[in-house]
Write a structure and sequence with these properties.
By secondary structure, this protein is α+β, with helices and mostly antiparallel strands. 36% of the residues lie in helices and 21% in strands. Helix 1 packs antiparallel against helix 4 and helix 4 packs across helix 5. It is elongated and about 75 Å long. Bound molecules: iron/sulfur cluster (SF4).
Length: 236
């Protein structure tokens, strides 16, 4: 059993927002605000396309599942995976290999023989790039799979919509520590119920929350809702 209860689980996708900007995660989770821009709309369409495909598909030595629900009581996160592939690593018999943490390298699947390695694939819009938040979100999915299936998940991939290519991500100790730390701090932020101060930076121009966050105007510790309430009170 992990350190969080089912009621305490937060959306896994918040990890990406949190590492992009803590205020952004607070606006979404604490203040319940969301704004789309061109980037988020394109991203939503890409995810819908994945969701519209068959939920389970077989391609040679790979079983592809879409929309698998994931959760980790250690991270305190839950969410839906775009794609989890199960790659065949052994045709049959028994798989005795264990890694140091005592986890198996692959698992049996119902109705098919052999042992299969889970491989999460997350879909992102745009060009290929390394983004800390994307990689931590994928690593969080891997940690969920390890906790749920009792096997190790050493690698996954991010599929980028523009070049239609995958970038492999290795879940090493550094990325795992960063992901666990982000999940812990995300819970602290949400439990504090306080929206961090806005600070205008270059990245704000690509942030879909720019128009509700107003970082140039609300550069204070106030929440957006608090700012609007004061502004409206002054008008009347
Ligand atoms: S506009 Fe800037 S400060 Fe506001 S949520 Fe987005 S990145 Fe954060």
């Amino acid at each position: 059993m992990g350190i969080y209860t089912e009621e305490e689980l937060l959306p896994l996708s918040l990890i990406q927002h949190f590492l992009f900007c803590e205020r952004r995660a607070a606006l979404v989770q604490i203040e319940g605000l969301w704004e789309d821009n061109l980037f988020t709309v394109e991203g939503t369409h890409l995810h819908q396309k994945v969701d519209d495909d068959l939920p389970v598909e077989s391609r040679g030595d790979v079983r592809i599942t879409r929309g698998l629900m994931l959760r980790s009581f250690n991270l305190g996160l839950s969410g839906k995976a775009d794609v989890v592939e199960f790659q065949l690593v052994s045709e049959g018999g028994t798989l005795s290999s264990l890694i140091p943490r005592g986890l198996a390298m692959a698992i049996p699947l119902p109705s098919v023989s052999g042992f299969w390695r889970p491989y999460p694939v997350d879909y992102k819009r745009g060009r290929m790039r390394h983004e800390e938040g994307f990689e931590a979100q994928l690593c969080a999915q891997a940690i969920c799979l390890e906790e749920m299936l009792g096997c190790v998940v050493p690698e996954g991939a991010i599929y980028y919509g523009k070049p239609h290519r995958r970038l492999a991500v290795v879940f090493d100790e550094v990325l795992r520590a960063k992901t666990s730390d982000a999940a812990r701090r995300l819970h602290e932020l949400v439990n504090s119920d306080r929206t961090p101060q806005a600070r205008y930076e270059k990245k704000c121009e690509s942030c879909s929350m720019l128009s509700v966050c107003m970082p140039k105007v609300t550069g204070s510790r106030r929440s957006v809702k608090g700012y609007m309430a004061t502004a409206l009170a002054n008008v009347t």
